[in-house]
């Protein structure tokens, strides 16, 4: 315990560490606030004056507009929303909202958009997947929204997982377990909040990488390792304690920053929004039976697992590198590797690789969060693994594996 | 208590740094002498167990150190040539950290650190960051960490580099006392540091051990090869060309007293001088520079 305490003290007294941890905490507060700035509203007041609102005021205005729409998304609410939409466009004799006079969209359509956004997906052509325009959807059938969703998931998965019946079956089974009717709150359907949580997580991952990368390599470089290696506990035990302390610092930093982000974000937007079904955030067809609050928590926990796996990888690289700059550079490369893979390999191989590499869960394009909103599976014969589960599985396997390799690498480090 | 270097060699890609060295190190101060590249540091790193010999093995009390593992490290203290430290740590924090790694209890650690800080005159800077200390102070912190566990085997690679003369004297006294019942192996370029305190010396050249013995035994190798003479100052450049002058001193009246190495006297008034270990060193490693006084 004494060595662990001293090792923690050593890392925490490193200037770079506390500067990065300080920045991470400030970023958590700032990034929780940024999504509030995306709200803007315009309306005409009782005196006929045009009023423009932005930020939290605009959000509160939009929330008041949707006061009666929040809560359970009943089939009747969906029908009423579609009716309001179609009536408005018919009234102005247009086929698209772009053709509406200025201000009309904001006042008459915008309040309903969240409720009708899933209709297009549910009523898409089963063969082509082409979505109809909202004006083409029969008002009387709108109340069949949920049964249409249950039908549509089958054809959607046939298209998404054409050659993998196991994946199709699993997806349909998952979707049937999704609680319906969905629940909707304006703030809960704001995907920006989730995007910013992911962005924050990725930035903390970068900071953790910079903190962890020199743990072994800087000691090789400065020669400090020569002294430590000659002490009684200076090999396996010290290696283990260095790993534990790096993991503790990075894990705590990530958990703390994620908690700060979630608490501030929910305080700004209102805690009731956490009940929003994720089908109201991304796609009505999303397979997970969770709400926004659970998604925030799952993203944070999966992020924590990813950070721990990534730090394990970084420590392993550090134990294999004799130069601090090299260990930081290679470790950072691994942080950006998911983006490179996503762009360079937009196929099954890319999906596999991104699930396997420890940093994949917080990739900016192919993360655990986006996997939750997607319909991808890793298929091996008759076995199908949903990609969010795959991220968690591979990260959980990577942590002990990489820790073991790091301890072995550090303990046996000798100039050959 | 015996450290046995048994026919140890170390081959790097294109160089044999240590070539079949056999050395039986017993309690006392051992001086390891040799020019740069002689293989001293490589040999010490192998004794420290942080470098693997290409062939041969190192034994402590008859057991290979590879097999002893942390039992060996428990009785071992090491100061490498390049003292890598944590810049963020204060002297005290650093010594606490190393003492914890050496398995000292918190109480033992406090007592030992306090003693060493005093012995090495570091008490006043114990709360200063190591990065802010002078080179000599850093070196003393390095020596302190090596002594923390009162090691049976103490290996010091160039421990006196950066120390001022007073610090060197204090260090020599500290080691002399310490080495009574411990094995101390010191590698240094500063020959007088080991000359006064080493019970035995080992001389390395091009990776090989070329001689071992007490200082008295070793200096006999240059007996009759050390001369002193007075020469006119104006002829000094000429003599510097043709003689291996190891020391010179201006005596006034345009006269210079020189000490030089040669198989035979090279000036008419040359007289034999009492050889010192440094003379042997310079005889064996002629590329090293001479010392000037006055």
Automatic annotation (TrEMBL), chain A:
Pfam families: ABC2_membrane_2 (PF12679)
Keyword Membrane: yes
Keywords noted in UniProt: Membrane, Transmembrane, Transmembrane helix
Presence of keyword Membrane: yes
Transmembrane segments: 12-34, 196-217, 238-264, 295-317, 324-344, 390-410
Name of the protein described by the UniProt record: ABC transporter permease subunit
TrEMBL record, chain B:
Native organism: Faecalicatena faecalis
Source species, domain of life: Bacteria
Keyword presence, rRNA-binding: no
Residues covered by the ABC transporter domain: 3-231
Signal sequence, renumbered to the chain: none
Record keywords, A-Z: ATP-binding, Nucleotide-binding, Transport
Family: Belongs to the ABC transporter superfamily.
PANTHER family given in the database record: ABC TRANSPORTER, ATP-BINDING PROTEIN (PTHR43335)
GO molecular function (one): ATP binding
The name this protein goes by in its record: ABC transporter ATP-binding protein
Annotated InterPro entries: AAA+_ATPase, ABC_transporter-like_ATP-bd, ABC_transporter-like_CS
